[in-house]
TrEMBL record:
This is Sirohydrochlorin ferrochelatase. Its EC number is 4.99.1.4. It comes from Priestia iocasae. PANTHER family: SIROHYDROCHLORIN FERROCHELATASE, CHLOROPLASTIC. The keyword Glycoprotein does not apply. It comes from the Bacteria. Keywords: Lyase, Metal-binding. The keyword Lyase applies. GO terms for molecular function: sirohydrochlorin ferrochelatase activity. InterPro entries: CbiX-like, Sirohydro_Cobaltochel/CbiX.
Length: 247
């Protein structure tokens, strides 16, 4: 019997975990596979191990594990696979297929443009954007992030799109924000590239609040959130994985 294991990041902030579980529930409704469980990599329950065992207890012999992550970094390449490897050793009769983070997708650029529009602030010809990532030491993830920024610049009215990070990479968010205020653009749209609310989003809000200028607008958009576009991308990946299993 087939199962889908949705693996979310996890957060110390309960609202962030509730958002993730609500997203998974919306995905489940579009997937006809009989067994579907959600798990968190860290900071919340159920753990990957617990959710994997729930799948097995319900009769799963093939499990599709999908990391619900934005970029392909250490969590997707090492942390989650290491846990899954242990579970396969424990249940060798189970066939496992492993998905991929969202990566670079046109539908995600669509979400970013929507978040900018939702501010109800018209983007002028003197506007730039600051795309704020979680941060990673993984070069592939950093390259993906730069490509997303480039595509956003190409598809928007922004004169430029800079990137910065909340951890593990440079420039830091504080450095990126301070630099943006020196570039003499009348509008700076700060766009958090985050899936859920939490400690990092609170940090972005606090830093933006500290900066105000009569000659420059600092406009904070909402974080990505678990948008319907992401549901479409995730469901498409589940279908692709399932098709490869049944061949």
């Amino acid at each position: 019997m087939d199962a889908v294991l949705y693996i979310c990041h996890g957060s110390r902030v309960k609202e962030g975990c509730r958002e993730a579980l609500s997203f998974v529930q919306r995905c489940k409704e579009k997937v006809s596979i009989p067994i579907q469980e959600a798990a968190f990599l860290e900071l919340a329950e159920p753990t990957i191990e617990e959710a994997f065992e729930r799948c097995v207890e319900q009769g799963a012999t093939r499990i599709m594990a999908i990391p619900i992550l934005l970029l392909t970094a250490a969590h997707a390449k090492q942390d989650i696979p290491n846990v899954l490897k242990k579970m396969i050793m424990r249940y060798p009769h189970v066939e496992l297929s492993y998905g991929q983070p969202f990566g670079v997708q046109e539908k995600i650029i669509d979400i970013l443009l929507e978040k900018v529009k939702d501010t109800n602030q018209e983007v002028t010809d003197q506007a730039m954007a600051l795309l704020v990532g979680r941060g990673s030491s993984d070069q592939e993830a950093l390259m993906q992030f730069q490509e997303i920024a480039q595509q956003l610049e190409e598809r928007s009215k922004f004169q430029r799109v800079n990137t910065c990070f909340l951890a593990a990479a440079t420039p830091t968010f504080k450095e990126g924000l301070l630099n943006a205020t020196t570039l003499h653009y009348r509008q700076v749209f700060v766009i958090p590239y985050l899936l859920f609310t939490g400690v990092l989003m609170s940090e972005v809000i606090e830093e933006v609040k500290k900066l105000s200028s009569s000659s420059q607008q600092i406009i904070l958009t909402n974080y990505l959130g678990y948008h319907s576009n992401l549901i479409d991308l995730l469901v498409e990946q589940v279908h692709q994985l399932h098709s490869s299993l049944v061949k």
